[in-house]
Amino acid sequence: MTAPILITGAAQRIGLALVQHFVKNQQPVIMTYRARHNIIDELEQQGVICIESNFDDADAVDTLVANVKMHTSSLKAIIHNASSWDCEGQNPDHSRLFDSMIRIHAKVPYLLNMAMSDLLLAYDDIADIIHLTDYVVETGSAKHIAYAASKATLDNLSKSFAAKFAPRIKVNAIAPSLIIFNEHDSSEYKEKTLKKSLMAIEPGCREIVNSVELLLNSNYITGRTLPVDGGRHLK
């Protein structure tokens, strides 16, 4: 049986698109979700192992590791997608905000990588860790300061883990800018955001799926960050 891929925060948007892609290609998946949406029932019927995990809980990582190890003795990859888009403007408790951003975007991936490296090393080929970071790692963000700092930490972890786990495990990051809009985004916001990149489009989750497949299929790329920003860095 093919070893599964673990994807965190995969009940919607990019994470869900990755799960559905792998299911379509008969790749076993273990995923985590914070809130149980209707899609979870459908995914479970398709054979996806869905584990409820609230990474704000102190014991969430230990519980997740134990659950994953009950289901499999090896992993093909871990894709760290779980994220929060909280910001200073919406959260006046800046100390709590910073701790929360660092926890979900850096501490949780760090702990999961350390705790489940044995499962990745048990895979019969080169395994992968992929961190989903953000375009703002390069630029910072005046409106999402803690968020940007935490994603930059995750980007740096990619380099450290790549050196630690080579050559048996490749570790890379994907840094997207706009991929898909939210349902509540206004037309004015969409127009303004589209103008920020050279390509000026809403590319859709397929761009991240393609980027993940590129990294999974490579035997040589490690310790790198793949930008998926539509040329935004040149604007």
Q: Give the integer mean of the pLDDT values.
A: 96
- The CATH topology comes to Rossmann fold
- Side by side, the strands of the main sheet go 3-2-1-4-5-6-7
- How would you sum up the global shape? globular
* Total count of helical runs of at least 4 residues: 9
Describe the structure.
Pfam families: adh_short_C2. One of its GO terms (molecular function) is oxidoreductase activity. Keywords: NADP, Oxidoreductase. This is Dihydromonapterin reductase. InterPro entries: NAD(P)-bd_dom_sf, SDR_fam. The chain has a seven-stranded parallel sheet, sandwiched between helices. Strand 2 (about 30-35), helix 2 (about 40-45) and strand 3 form a beta-alpha-beta unit. The radius of gyration is 17 Å and the shape is globular. It has helices spanning about 15-25, 40-45, 60-70, 95-115, 115-120, 135-140, 145-165, 185-195, 205-215, and strands at about 5, 30-35, 50, 75-80, 125-130, 170-175, 225-230. It contains nine helices and seven strands, in the order E-H-E-H-E-H-E-H-H-E-H-H-E-H-H-E. Helix 4 (about 95-115) packs parallel to helix 7 (about 145-165). With about 240 residues, it is an alpha/beta fold. It has one domain (about 5-235): Rossmann fold, CATH 3.40.50.720.
Secondary structure elements and pairings:
Blueprint: E1 5-7, H1 13-24, E2 29-33, H2 38-45, E3 49-52, H3 60-71, E4 77-80, H4 94-115, H5 117-121, E5 127-132, H6 136-139, H7 145-165, E6 169-176, H8 187-194, H9 206-217, E7 225-228
Parallel strand pairs: 1-2, 1-4, 2-3, 4-5, 5-6, 6-7
Helix pairs in contact: 4-7
